[in-house]
Give the backbone structure.
Amino acid sequence: MSPRKRPLVPVSSRRKPVDDYFPFNLLPVECQLHVFSFLSEVDKCSCALVCFSWSCIIRSWKLWRVADYSRRGVFHLGQEGLLVSNREFERWKSWVHHYTHHLISRRASLLTLKASFDLGDRCNNWGELLSHLLDNVHCRDLSHLDLNWTFTLLEPLDLRVHSSSSSHQDSITKMDQLTSFQELLTKLTQSCPRISKMRIHFDWSDVSVSLLTQFQQLRVLELKYFWVFKGVTPSTLQNLTKSLPNLKSLTLHILVPMRNLGISYTLESQSLEFLDVSPSRGLVFSSLKLPALRELQAKKIVRSITLDRRTRLRIQSRWPCLYHVLREGTPKLQALNNERLLPTWKEQSYGELSAILEQSCYCVRHLDSWLW
């Protein structure tokens, strides 16, 4: 049997190759930039290799709005300060410096900065690297800062093997970290005054609080642990929230030291709508002045502290019930621990609300065994 022959197509009806191409280069530059803006950083670099015109467009500062130093470690997601071989660490460190140079050479106009570096590391000087980046890119419009300055994403194995583990050395490291953090925070107040969303570890010192209150555009703020043994004074916490007039969402990670168990706190803000203190331990409120608050997340965490019953009752008797605090200071509250409140919750408590309070209130009425 003879092989089947392909039917002949008249030349006039054949589709010209030029018809298969969309004249992308004829679009206005702003349209081309908008299309390229949906690509990842790796894809943008690949597009820059296509032709000279695309390479020129990809170099535009408008396409480089994010500095994300954590994306390289996505395969280590959920692991903090992961120990790796010296060779792998040097490769990652080289990538960090090349990435920084790339952003500077593109004259990036940053809207987002995400990084995790131990600013107390004197060998690698990560604080200087971040300062160099901020000095050489346009960051006036930076709106989102996600910074962990207490550890580096990857660490070389021999760094831990030969390092001292004494408490004195740990204290020196903490002070180095804190000094570098305050220097960087000072630079941010000058270079990036429009930050509206911030997630950082915080030390609650007077200097750091004073610097933080200079970000008057803050709308979303999350403050995580720095040194768990450092207490937070009630006046410090109250002054912070009062000094941020546009704050809408606040998440606090505070561990109240055992010596401060009898202390209670006051929060005051005319703008705050969402408050999450569920990551905190021992944070008890004596008063809330939050007329705009709509949602609260709070959780009572067992501290495993052994105290005699008389001492426990004496401590807890100082604290008002959370229900009364909310009823007096949060007139617009609609949800507590993801549960929708009934419209009449302020007039009378009910079964579901009582169950929530037993999980979040530290008063004697709602279980007195949390200190055990």
About this structure: Residues 167-191 form the longest helix (25 residues). The chain is about 35% helix and 15% strand. Residues 74-79 have pLDDT under 50 and may be disordered.
